[in-house]
């Protein structure tokens, strides 16, 4: 898209050109507020450049609810694959037609008098308000232990993984059992590779239960509308997502079944030494914890069905199909023929450019539904910004509407005050 001319001042600046930043731009346009969007790479970069070939949605298509851009395909209960997701996002990009500067990073955001000053790679600007929509997924997080792996072992992060063919022949260790780690482990396994999966405390969820997609049940129950301020939900913003998949029409991911099929499972990685990867003795605890969440979600659905008198196929708790015989403490990488390590260890946010007092002791933004304590500064696109769907296609639009609504009211008040001072 053509790059607009950079002005010296804007009523609002949006930092980040992903789904959150574009949603903010959509609502800023609807309020008639002049603004600019700065994106340090390209629009929707992560969808286009940090997803593997077999990637697909893990939530059904009907949950794609970007502003004025709901899913309009023929399979609302299916799961779009990578090319379909990119087409959906591209249509949204064209619809919003945001005033965006791509390949333009923001290097500094500070308060100067009554305005905010932003230094960018395209020049400096000032703004009355700023929306930080950079999410938590700026940079791949790779443990320092990777520096102690033998030099002949290929190491990549999930952001760089595309398919099994890009890796050298031999065994592969996937470190991390969140959504990406489990799906990539399955992708490698289906490609005929010997896979070793290092587990963590990620929970799991059934794909289908009692005749329907679990997401449909949870939506009916109201789980996606529960706010982060609901009792016990505050900690959720740091939780790992449940693992399941939409691949081939959707199915459970059961690590115990993986083990029966030949995938080797281990407890959490504790380090690397002398050509060996070391593990904590918590594989059983990790598997049991994931299953406990799985059965807890299904029990919630059981209660809903009973309370509403809904006719549905019978359900039953999950019973483990495999148990580890022993906890493996270490793995000799060369002896096991391992040639590659894939780090499914998540991402780190980059708020280093923000010179404003909006963070808590853990360097996490303090806000209420995206509104920070610094007047005129907002955050958007974070998991559990307000509800379970925040940061996703489902609810990022609703969050953007709220944030921009607050910004617009502030803008209107400032404009009115300025007019009154001028007339006086």
From TrEMBL:
Pfam family, one: Pyr_redox_3
GO molecular function terms listed in the Swiss-Prot or TrEMBL record: flavin adenine dinucleotide binding; monooxygenase activity
Keywords: Oxidoreductase
InterPro entries named in the record: Auxin_biosynth/cation_transpt (IPR050982), CHP04046_FMN-dependent (IPR024000), FAD/NAD-bd_sf (IPR036188)
This protein's record includes keyword Oxidoreductase: yes
Name the record gives this protein: MSMEG_0569 family flavin-dependent oxidoreductase
Source organism per UniProt: Rhizobium johnstonii (strain DSM 114642 / LMG 32736 / 3841) (Rhizobium leguminosarum bv. viciae)
């Amino acid at each position: 898209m053509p790059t607009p001319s950079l002005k010296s001042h804007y009523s609002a600046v949006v930092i980040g050109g992903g789904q959150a930043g574009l949603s903010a731009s959509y609502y800023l346009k609807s309020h008639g507020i002049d603004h600019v969007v700065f994106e340090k790479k390209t629009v929707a970069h992560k969808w286009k450049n940090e997803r593997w070939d077999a990637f697909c949605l893990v939530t059904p298509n009907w949950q794609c609810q970007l502003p004025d851009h709901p899913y309009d395909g023929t399979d609302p209960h299916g799961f779009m694959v990578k090319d379909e997701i990119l087409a959906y996002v591209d249509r949204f990009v064209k619809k919003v037609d945001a005033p965006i500067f791509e390949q333009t990073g923001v290097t500094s955001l500070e308060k100067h008098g009554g305005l905010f000053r932003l230094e960018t790679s395209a020049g400096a600007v000032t703004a009355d308000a700023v929306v930080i929509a950079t999410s938590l997924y700026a940079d791949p997080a790779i443990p320092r232990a990777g520096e102690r792996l033998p030099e002949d072992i290929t190491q990549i992060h999930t952001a760089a993984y595309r398919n099994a063919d890009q890796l050298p022949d031999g065994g592969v260790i996937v470190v991390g059992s969140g959504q990406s780690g489990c799906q990539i482990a399955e992708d490698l396994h289906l490609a005929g590779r010997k896979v070793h999966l290092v587990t963590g405390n990620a929970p799991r969820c059934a794909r289908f239960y009692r005749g329907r997609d679990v997401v449909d049940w949870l939506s009916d129950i109201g789980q996606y509308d529960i706010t982060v301020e609901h009792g016990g939900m505050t900690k959720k913003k740091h939780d790992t997502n449940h693992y399941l998949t939409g691949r081939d029409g959707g199915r459970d991911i059961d690590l115990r079944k993986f083990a029966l099929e030949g995938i080797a499972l281990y407890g959490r990685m504790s380090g690397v030494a002398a050509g060996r990867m070391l593990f904590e003795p918590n594989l059983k605890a990790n598997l049991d914890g994931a299953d406990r969440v799985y059965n807890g979600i299904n029990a919630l659905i059981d209660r809903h069905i009973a309370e509403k008198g809904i006719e549905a196929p019978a359900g039953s708790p999950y019973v483990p199909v495999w148990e580890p015989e022993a906890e493996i403490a270490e793995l000799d990488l060369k002896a096991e023929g391992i040639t590659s390590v894939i780090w499914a260890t998540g991402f780190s946010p980059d708020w280093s450019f923000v010179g404003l007092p909006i963070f808590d002791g853990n360097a996490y933004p303090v806000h209420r539904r995206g509104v920070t304590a610094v007047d005129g500064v907002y955050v958007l696109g974070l998991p559990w910004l307000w509800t379970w769907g925040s940061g996703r296609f489902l609810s990022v639009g609703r969050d953007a509407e709220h944030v921009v609504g607050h910004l617009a009211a502030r803008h209107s008040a400032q404009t009115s005050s300025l007019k009154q001072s001028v007339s006086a």
